[in-house]
Design brief:
By secondary structure, this protein is an alpha+beta fold. The chain has 2 domains: 151 residues, no CATH class; 155 residues, Heat Shock Protein 90, CATH 3.30.565.10. Helix content is 64%, strand content 13%. The protein is built from 8 helices and 7 strands, in the order αααααβαββαββαββ. It has a 5-stranded mixed beta sheet, with helices on one face. It has a two-stranded antiparallel sheet with strand order 1-3. A hairpin with a 3-residue loop joins strand 6 and strand 7. Helix 4 packs antiparallel against helix 8. The radius of gyration is 40 Å and the shape is rod-shaped.
Length: 350
């Protein structure tokens, strides 16, 4: 209510000013050849009233209720009615001056005030200007409201995207921890003297998962370090039955990536990889150039495990779609004795 009242207070002086200028225009224009100021005052005032009524009918009724809502036939019909009203009003105005100010002596009337065509052109000009301004005003308001709605929609979409991303991260956490704790449990059963080192590496991984993963991005070298810690844990468990080859090349140590982006692929290779001839072979290749990150991992796997991708891999596929908007390329290939993942992501996500 306050907003409407404030708008009314702001617009009313502008309307008064506009119609005051219209009145002055009529008065000065039709004063040519006339020496009767009383007649000019009433003649100009009546034309102004006709212009005001017709303009407001168009601006606040016909345009918003019919033209902008695409009810063109109704708009055309009511426009015809408005034109007839204007014609009638102009005719009455001319007759009013002819009867009351010039005693039925038509030849004594100023030339411009007895020309119906000139009067109609002036009145319709004012109506068109007022209606055109209102159409532009409605279009501007509509564009502004549309932009506001689009911004709200994008903001809501972004919030939902962030919530979904957080949900996916929460899914990764228990899954990853469960697999890692199983590794530690198996190692503890052997009562190995290397258990303290294993616990320390697991502690580092837990710190990464619980605290670093909530950041939008982390240094790629930190992600690599945690991959190496994870590999070290698995080497302690598998001993001689594991062969891992990790090749990496970084263009710049300041490169950043989303946290937990690569580690689930490594975890998946260990979880679903199988030993062939008593050895689980895993080959990892990582290269970060100026604009592109290439990550390739393959592990020995039996045909029966080809479709078992695990929660972590499914989540990482969804995360890639959300983070890179189809600009990343993920290829998953199953061969007779190998499971291969090839990932390419842009390092500048424009």
């Amino acid at each position: 209510m306050l907003k409407i009242f404030t708008s009314f207070l702001f617009k009313t002086p502008l309307h008064i000013l506009y119609w005051g200028l219209v009145w002055m225009f009529f008065y000065l224009f039709f004063s040519t050849g006339s020496n009767n100021p009383q007649f000019l005052f009433w003649f100009t005032s009546i034309l102004s009233v006709i212009s005001i009524i017709t303009s407001y009918v168009f601006a606040y009724n016909l345009i918003p209720n019919y033209l902008l809502t695409q009810k063109y036939w109704s708009f055309l019909l009511y426009t015809v009615y408005a034109i007839i009203f204007t014609l009638f009003g102009v005719l009455v105005t001319v007759v009013f001056g002819f009867v009351f100010f010039f005693n039925l002596e038509f030849q004594n009337m100023p030339a411009l005030t007895k020309s119906s065509s000139v009067i109609l052109v002036c009145v319709f000009l004012i109506i068109v200007l007022a209606s055109g301004y209102k159409i532009l005003s409605y279009n501007y308001k509509s564009t502004k409201e549309k932009k506001t709605l689009e911004n709200k929609f994008l903001q809501t979409k972004l919030q939902l995207k962030e919530q979904e991303l957080q949900f996916l991260k929460m899914q990764i956490h228990p899954h990853f921890l469960f697999n890692t704790l199983n590794t530690l449990y198996g190692f503890a059963l052997k009562k190995s003297e290397e258990a303290p080192e294993m616990i320390l590496k697991l502690s580092n991984l837990l710190d990464y998962i619980l605290y670093q993963v909530d950041k939008p991005s982390v240094l790629l070298k930190n992600e690599i370090q945690h991959i190496e810690d994870y590999i070290s844990l698995e080497k302690m468990r598998f001993q001689e039955s594991l062969q891992v080859n990790f090749t990496k090349s970084l263009f710049d140590e300041t490169i950043q990536v989303p946290p937990m982006l690569l580690l689930p692929f490594v975890e998946n290779a260990f979880k679903h990889g199988t030993q062939i001839n008593g050895v689980l072979n895993i080959h990892i290749y990582l290269k970060a150039s100026k604009d592109l990150l290439t990550f390739h991992i393959e592990n020995t796997s039996k045909k029966a495990t080809f479709n078992r991708k695990g929660i972590g891999l499914e989540n990482i596929q969804k995360r890639l779609e959300m983070l890179y908007n189809n600009k990343s390329k993920l290829s998953i290939e199953s061969k007779e004795s190998q499971f291969i993942v090839d990932l390419k992501i842009p390092l500048k996500n424009d």
